[in-house]
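Protocol step 4 of 5: obtain the predicted structure for the target chain.
Materials: sequence only (see below). No template structures provided, no constraints applied. The aim of this step is simply to have a reference model before the mutagenesis design in step 5. Sequence pasted as it appears in the construct record:
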Amino acid sequence: MQELTKQELHNLGMNIVGKKLQEMGYEFVAINSELKKHPQFVLYKKGEPTIFVLVKTTNNIQSPQEYDVLWMETFKEHAKNQNAKVWYAGIGIANAESVELPVFKDQPYYVAFDDFIKF
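Step 4 output (C-alpha cells):
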C-alpha cells in the first residue's frame, strides 16, 4: 500500500471542496492546487463579491477547522484590498481503519468537513 503524499492529500481535499462549491452554483475564476499557495479557489457568482477560498487538508478529523490566526488576518487584509471575501475550508481526511494510520492510495478514508468558515 502506498501512502498519499502531502500534495495528494491536499488534492483530495481540493476535490471535495470543489464539488461542494459547484453544487452551490459557483464558477471558478482560478484554481491553484499547489501546496501553501493561496487562495486555492477564486469564485464568481453573479451579484456577489469575489470569494477567495482557502483549503487546508489535515489528517486531524477531530478539529480540521483550526487555522493560524495571524496568517488568516494577513490574508483577510489582502482579500479586503481586492474587494473579496474569504472562506476557509478545513478538511480532515483519515484512514478508515485507524486514524493512527496514514491515508493510503485506493483505500477507504473518512472525511470531516462540515462547512466553510466565512469571514
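Step 4 remarks: The mean pLDDT is 95. The beta strands are 27-31, 41-44, 50-58, 84-95, 109-112, 117-118.
Proceed to step 5.
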